[in-house]
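Protein Record: Sequence and Backbone Structure Tokens
======================================================

Structure line: whole-number tokens from a learned vocabulary of local backbone shapes, matched to residues.

Purpose: to set a sequence beside its fold so the mapping can be learned.

___
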Amino acid sequence: MMNCEKHLTITITNIILFSVILATAGCSKENSKKDFIARVNETYLTREDFASLVDTTNLNPEQKDRLIKEWVYNEILFQQAVKDGITDEDEFKKIINNSKKQLASAILMDNYSLDQESNCTDEELIGYYNKNKNYFVSNANAYLLNRVYFTDEEKAIRFRNNAINSDWANAVNVFSEDSSINKSYTFALIDEYSIYPNQLNKIINDLYPQEISIVITEKPGYYSIVQMIKKISKNSILPFELIKSDVKKKLLAEKKNQIIKDYLKELYSQNEIEIKK
């Protein structure tokens, strides 16, 4: 989304947890020798340990290899650190203790916010959008488009003719089962910087609202047709119906922050706290 604050998808909690698991995975030695995917001396990384790092079903072989190598490197360094007596140093123990506090605090806040989290009604979303329209401003020229990609030029031409003679929705329906369609999307909001090469950007920009483009040969064997729905100028407010999901994400994030603030105030009032100047 344009000009809407991007939210990190990985929390501090997840980062710490990942690091802890990565560094400590494979401590069990009983059954690990029978089913392991990596070993550093007498420490094993089992398939169970590996599955706890990430959802392995979504990893390609290269990503799996990278994670395994990272575990091996971490384990080599850790074992050497133990040999060098680093884990017995006071500074190390102090850092570990602080990390445990931060991790426990992060998990507590995540658990509490999940328990308290509520959904947003459409009325709330519209109200939030109307009060905070400055959050939802396009930082580039953008287009609301229908677009379809074909691997067969003749089919692309037939689709275009159908869309012109009837309408885009009918053409999509007629070709819905056609195997030559590579991909398609409707009412997609795309900024000008996401369209390349520049010649393609110019073709799209020259279209009038509701106009359907010629068949565009982006590269051999790759043909697309575009329908311009609407042009959105830079610095204009994005329509609510196009960014409803982004409005919801931002509102839920603010709700979560407020939940945490209120929880901290509650805990603060329940404990004896003294701060000396």
Q: What stands out?
A: The two ends are 46 Å apart (CA to CA). Residues 122-133+239-269 form one domain. The CA atoms of residues 147 and 185 lie 6 Å apart. The chain has nine helices and six strands.
